[in-house]
Structure formats: structure tokens, C-alpha cells
Amino acid sequence: MSEEQSTLGEAARRFVEDFADNWHESGAGRMEGRVMGYLLITTSDHVSSAELSRELGIASGAVSMATRALGDQGYIRRRRLPGDRSHYFEAHEDIWGGFLTSERRWVFRMESVLDEANQQLDLEGAARRRVLIAREYMRWLGDYNQQMFRDWRAHLAAHTEALGEEPLDPADEETP
């Protein structure tokens, strides 16, 4: 798609690119970062694949891969509108709580992999110790992640009213 067709202003385009650069530095895909950045600042309730392609100047295949990854990680929702065959996307209001939830799922999976390695492999000495330490780290991180999520929701609830929004109930969303 051509960038000339985009209606995205220069400041918004800079934000999207800066957001994508930082997103990518965390180890995630840069295209996912561009899509996420755009969805954060759009004033629309939902955005079509075609709009993402046009506004970001990217191919529909790149939009598809990025939105699938973001959806799988819990950052965005895919919607269908009655009578419309297009896919529409919206960012979760609290994508950062979603980040913690996604991280928690990864931690549980990694803990399981390490636990299985400890049970299935005939490890001894330093190798066994490294696997056990890694497993314990994942257990600790999982517990801490739950506490961070609760703390985050309480913090957000305490500050949304100050931001001119309705107070947020910390229990509105599930704990990861």
C-alpha cells in the first residue's frame, strides 16, 4: 500500500514508529508494534484490516500476521460486523494488564518445560542444578506476576478518576 493514501498525521506517524521501535526492542515483531501503536491512538472503536494496511502503508499479509500475533497474545480483539466480511480490530483498553497475562502464560509453559526436563532427563550435577534453578525462577516469577497484576489493577483504579475517567474497579478483569 502507498503511504500517500494514509491520513495519519506526522506526529501520529512518529508515535507509531517510535512505539514500534520500542516494541521491537523488547523482542516482539516491529510490524506488531506498528499495528499496536496505531490501535492505541485511533479514535475509532474498531479498525479494519484495510484501514491498517492503508494507514501504515503495509501489505495485507503483514497486517494479517501482526493482528494474529497480537490477538494470540491477548493485546487486541478481532471483531466481525453483521453483514460485513471484513475483519476489524480493537485494542484492549488495558493492554498492559494483557501484557502481564501473556507473560504469565509464557511463565507457566516454561515452568512446565523445565519441570518435564527435570523428570524425564537423567540430569546430574551442574546441569540438574541449572534446570532446577530455572524452574524455581519461573515459579517465583509466576507468583510475582500475579501480585504485579493485582497491584497494577489497584494502581489503575486509583488513577483513572484523576485522569478524568470513571473509576475502574480493580476486579473488572480476571487475574492472570
From TrEMBL:
Statement: the UniProt record of this protein carries the keyword Transcription: yes
Transcription as UniProt keyword: yes
GO molecular function annotations of the record: DNA binding; DNA-binding transcription factor activity
Record domain HTH marR-type: where: 31-85
Pfam families (alphabetical): MarR_2
Keywords: DNA-binding, Transcription, Transcription regulation
InterPro entries hit by this protein: HTH-GbsR_regulator, HTH_MarR-typ, WH-like_DNA-bd_sf, WH_DNA-bd_sf
Protein name per Swiss-Prot or TrEMBL: MarR family transcriptional regulator
Species assigned in the record: Nocardioides flavescens
